[in-house]
């Protein structure tokens, strides 16, 4: 049937059309960072807050399509801006809207609401406000994750949300263990995959198992050492079975989790010994050099890259350090714990990850970056490269690469002719 006319937050007849056009224009995070003439920041902030208030009102709309568009627009704003004060005044309203959308919405709406819940906690940080949000949403998220009748996509989004929100709150150790147990009950079903008579159902739920495993791994990184030892004993002998899974993402998730478990085990015990090391390294080496023709080239390339690093971690206790640039700063990812944490938050924040690493106190605390670096407007202006200058630089780099490759090709041709 036809969708009901939206009457919030404006009273005129075209309110919904105007607001929805804002939704579509606002949903692109790039709109926050486009180069352009200088504008009045205070007026821009007021305009932004006015739009956000409209989106919050539209999360209560009768139309599911309108509610979902409003949730997506709020997600784009929360991932691209620090809006602590604005959210602080409306956190209860936002929490109620998210709870209602998760409880009563369909799959896509539930996914959008779960994503917004993550961003809400990321914005609020690890304070009492986030605790209140998690007390309200935690039971709802767990219920969806464990509900076999809910869509796999909604359960997957709720599992990720559950892990990230619990990671941010973390004050109550019993809640941490309870959340981990909930996620464990989901991904442990993948251990029996080969013995599952219903192969279609098992494959269908793989995406859920992957999300639950990654969320559980994130929470493991903040557990006390005695609990870490228990979890290693429980899972280290079972996880290698997932390396034979048909799904690439499950193989990669299992491999990276194994690398992290070995890293944590060796931190607790420098002389840690794993009985089936030869069998495990053989499996990892096979995946790191996999050449099966029935797999896509892109998948094989990705798998080989990941498992080369996993093999080095398990065999040689080595980690290939990565560097992340954001603004004038640099962050070095030098261990599996840091890598897994970074990847989880990057999945939620998307293109806004760099901005939050610069400005979000909570994330900076997680990655031990210290307080935000304060730069005045003049300094930022001198650091910023104009779009035209970027174009010139890219053109020059492209020409240089072309010349270098041409020389290499000429050398190869000469060698071929010589032989």
From TrEMBL:
Q: Does the keyword Iron apply?
A: no
Kindly state one GO CC term assigned in the UniProt record. Answer: nucleus
Please provide the record's keywords in A-Z order: Developmental protein, Differentiation
Superkingdom field: Eukaryota
Which Gene3D superfamilies is this protein grouped with? Leucine-rich Repeat Variant
The alphabetized list of GO BP terms reads: cell differentiation
Q: Which SUPFAM superfamilies match?
A: ARM repeat
User: Cross-referenced InterPro entries, in alphabetical order?
Assistant: ARM-like, ARM-type_fold, IFRD, Interferon-rel_develop_reg_C, Interferon-rel_develop_reg_N
Task: Give all residue intervals belonging to the Interferon-related developmental regulator N-terminal domain.
Answer: 19-315
Which family would the database say this protein is a member of?
Belongs to the IFRD family.
This chain's protein is named Interferon-related developmental regulator 1
**Which gene name does the record give?**
Ifrd1
């Amino acid at each position: 049937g036809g969708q009901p006319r939206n009457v919030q937050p404006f009273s005129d007849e075209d309110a919904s059309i105007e607001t929805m056009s804002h939704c579509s224009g606002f949903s692109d995070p790039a709109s926050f960072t486009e180069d352009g003439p200088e504008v009045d920041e205070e007026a821009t902030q007021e305009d932004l807050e006015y739009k956000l208030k409209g989106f919050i009102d539209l999360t209560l709309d009768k139309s599911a399509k309108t509610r979902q568009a409003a949730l997506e627009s709020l997600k784009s704003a929360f991932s691209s801006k620090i809006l602590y004060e604005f959210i602080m005044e409306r956190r209860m309203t936002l929490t109620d809207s998210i709870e209602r959308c998760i409880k009563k919405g369909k799959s896509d709406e539930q996914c959008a609401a779960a994503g917004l819940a993550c961003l809400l906690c990321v914005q609020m940080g690890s304070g009492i406000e986030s605790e209140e949000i998690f007390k309200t949403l935690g039971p709802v998220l767990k219920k969806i994750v464990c509900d076999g009748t809910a869509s796999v996509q909604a359960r997957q989004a709720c599992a990720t949300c559950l892990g990230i929100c619990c990671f941010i709150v973390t004050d109550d150790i019993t809640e941490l263990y309870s959340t981990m147990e909930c996620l464990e009950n989901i991904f442990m079903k993948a251990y029996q995959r080969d013995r599952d008579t219903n192969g279609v159902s098992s494959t269908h739920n793989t995406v859920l198992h992957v999300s639950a495993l990654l969320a559980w791994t994130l929470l493991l990184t903040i557990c006390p050492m005695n609990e870490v030892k228990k979890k290693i004993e429980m899972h280290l002998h079972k996880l290698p079975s997932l390396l034979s899974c048909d799904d690439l993402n499950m193989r990669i998730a299992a491999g990276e989790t194994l690398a992290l478990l070995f890293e944590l085990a060796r931190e607790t015990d420098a002389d840690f010994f794993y009985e089936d090391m030869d069998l495990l390294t053989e499996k990892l080496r096979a995946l790191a050099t996999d050449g099966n023709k029935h797999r896509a080239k892109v998948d094989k390339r990705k798998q080989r890259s990941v498992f080369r690093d996993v093999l080095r971690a398990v065999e040689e206790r080595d980690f290939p350090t990565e560097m992340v640039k954001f603004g004038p700063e640099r962050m070095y990812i030098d261990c599996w714990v840091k890598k897994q944490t970074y990847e989880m938050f990057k999945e939620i924040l998307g293109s806004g990850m760099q901005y939050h690493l610069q400005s979000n106190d909570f994330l900076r605390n997680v990655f031990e970056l210290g307080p935000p670096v304060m730069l005045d407007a003049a300094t930022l202006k001198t650091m910023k490269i104009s779009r035209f200058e970027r174009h010139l630089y890219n053109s020059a780099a492209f020409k240089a690469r072309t010349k270098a490759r041409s020389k290499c090709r000429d050398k190869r041709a000469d060698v071929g002719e010589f032989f």
